[in-house]
Each structure stands twice: as structure tokens, then as C-alpha cells.
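INPUT
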Amino acid sequence: MRDAFHEDLDRISDELVQMTGMVQQAMSRATTALLQADLSVAESVIAGDDDIDELRRSVDDSAVDLLARQQPVATDLRMVVTAMHMASDIERMGDLARHIAKAARRRYPENAVPEQLRPVLSEMERVAESLVVKTGQAIANKDVLAAADLQREDDKMDELHRRVFAILLDPSWQGGTAGAVDATLLSRYFERFGDHAVAVANRIVYLVTGSYGSVDEGVVTDPQAV
Amino acid sequence: MRDAFHEDLDRISDELVQMTGMVQQAMSRATTALLQADLSVAESVIAGDDDIDELRRSVDDSAVDLLARQQPVATDLRMVVTAMHMASDIERMGDLARHIAKAARRRYPENAVPEQLRPVLSEMERVAESLVVKTGQAIANKDVLAAADLQREDDKMDELHRRVFAILLDPSWQGGTAGAVDATLLSRYFERFGDHAVAVANRIVYLVTGSYGSVDEGVVTDPQAV
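OUTPUT
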């Protein structure tokens, strides 16, 4: 039987996994709203972000409560602090899904994404969902190998981000300046979503191995790299 | 004379203020690199970001060490946890300065910013510096009024962000699609820099008053708002 500290920590871990589930759904629905110009889905994602924020506050409160009651030290203390950092990253992933839903709402009844970009954004959504599902699994299982896999998965997202820039800068681009501004922001939201998943993965690696992973999140904001 | 806990906490607070000083310098120099196409300044900002990251790790380590040794509860505990969250926001502000320096390096020897946008980006830099200086002061003085002032200052940044979109979407825009993509990302970096300053301010408000502030960071990623 587990002691009180680890039971409490398991509950916090469960809440983090629950957050990843909510973020997965938000990202999936936000992209549906974006690609199908569906206003009611966009509205529900935007409104639903409050629930993710609320759960994040709950994780923070539980963590502070746990620190106060159990006064953990060493690895136990690190685990509680790391849980709070993870909650922050996952909440931010929810914010990025909300940004995408807002882009859909802003352009409604028009479709915010020109035909040329729809395949690559669909693919970004697929990678984003895979990333957040794996993030949840890596948290649940404290799985270092899954965390390393997340980094590779995020490389796909970075490649797609470069592909968006290649499309925008190609002479065949039909979306004009306004379309390019929208697409740049949307692609950046997906890329940052991936960065936060990797940041969570690196925290798991740190917890298990005791050394910091590295997130080079600047590298693919480089349109020249295409 | 202060007790050991508060002496340690003061040292952490000093490190946070030191981080804001480093970020201020990074942002100032990154914008110089950007507007004057100065490669060596860009390189030094990019390399210098490691020092900010290092100081952030030092804050985290000091905070964990403090928790382990002093086992604070209630408000004392909240202050230590909040310091870690602030370090995370300030480190991210440094990352955004690095992103701006990378944009300058990418376009060198060309100037990354078309003539039409130089005044508004200069103004964004001025506001960014003011924000980070005030952030440092608000941390040093645990000053709720300064924190509220930060929110107002960030409204100017949001207004400038909208002005960038207005320039990009105006028929007189001369920078083409590639220039619009660059400008969208640069403006977004400045806007996010302001958001993180406001996030720190809200944490100070929370510490002093016990209730959460609100950061609506999505609101001005809206090109339609222009």
C-alpha cells in the first residue's frame, strides 16, 4: 500500500493526465472549427478553456497543500514542483487551442484557411493530437522512452511549420498578405503546442534521470529554413 | 533583523530582479540588432540567453532548497512557489528577445524590417523595456500599484501590435508576403513579451492580495481587431 504522500501525488498526476485529455479534445475541436468554419464548435472550445484553467489552479492548489502538509524533501519535493511546471505547460497548450478557435470565429462565415494550406494544417492537427496523447501517457507512466519519442514526434511538427512557410513564400500562394498573416500565426500556435509537449517530456526525463533535457524552441521559427 | 527564511527569500527576489535586468539588456540589444542589421550584437544576444537560463535554474534550485530546509507553510510557501513561476515567465521573456536577435541574424546583411515598420517596432521596443524595468521594480517592492500600472503599459503594446497588422494589411504595404510573415512573427514576440510581464504582475497581485489577477493574452493576436 502506498503512503499518504504518494497517494496525494498520484492524484495530482491523475489531474495532469486529465488536463491532457481536455487539451486533446480542445485541439481536435479547434481544428475542426477552423477547417470547417464551424462557429458553434469554435465558441465551445473558447468557453471550455476556462475548465482547463480551473483544473490547472486545482493542480497548483493540491501541490501547495501537499507541500504544506507532507513537507517532502529531495526527489519527492522535486516531483511536486515539477507537477506544477507541467500544469503550466499543459494549460498553455489549451490556450493555443483557444487561439486557433478564435481564429476560426474571427473569419466566420468565411473559412480562415485557404485551400492550399488545408492539408498541412490537418496534418499539424494530427501531430498535435498525437503529441498530447503521448504527453498524457508519459506522465501516467513516468516513461522516459515515451518522452524521447515525443521529441521525435515534435520534429514532424517543426517540419510542417517549415512547410507552411514554404507554401506562403511560393509564387503560387493565393492567399495574399492577410492570408499569410493568419497562416503565420496559426502555424506558430501549432508549433508552440509541440514545444510545450516537449517541455513536459523534458521534465519527465529530468525527474527520472536527474539531468535537464533541452528544448530548442527557437529553431523552427525560422522562415528562412524552408 | 530578518529570519533565515526571509533572508533566503530576499536573495531569490534579488535574483529575479537581476534576471529582469538581463532581459532588459537583451531586448534592447536584440532590437538594435534588428533595426540596424548588426550581426555581432545579434550573436551576443543569442549567446547571452544561456546566462538568463542559468540564472533561472539557480532560482529554481534556491527555491527547492529553501522549501526543503525551511519547510514554509501558508503565505511563506506561496511566496516561494510564486518566485518559481515568475522565474519561468522572465526566462521566457529572454527567449523572445533571443527570437528577435535570430530574426536579425537570419536576414543579415539585409535589414529584416522594412522602412514602413521601423517606427512602430522601435516603439514596441521602448514599451518592452519599460515593461521589464517596471516588472523588476514591482518584484523588488512587492508593489501592487506598480503591477496594475504594468497592465496599462501592456495595453500600449497591444495597440502597437494591432498597428503592425494595420500596416501589413494596408494596400500601401511594400514588404510583400515574406516581409509580412517576418513582421507578424516579430510583432507577436513583442506582444508575448508584454503578456509575460503582465503575468508576473498578476502573480505579485496574487501574493499581496490573495486573489488571482487575469491575463487575457489571446485578445490581441487578432488581426481583425485592427
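end of record. Chain B touches chain A through 41 residues (CB under 8 Å).
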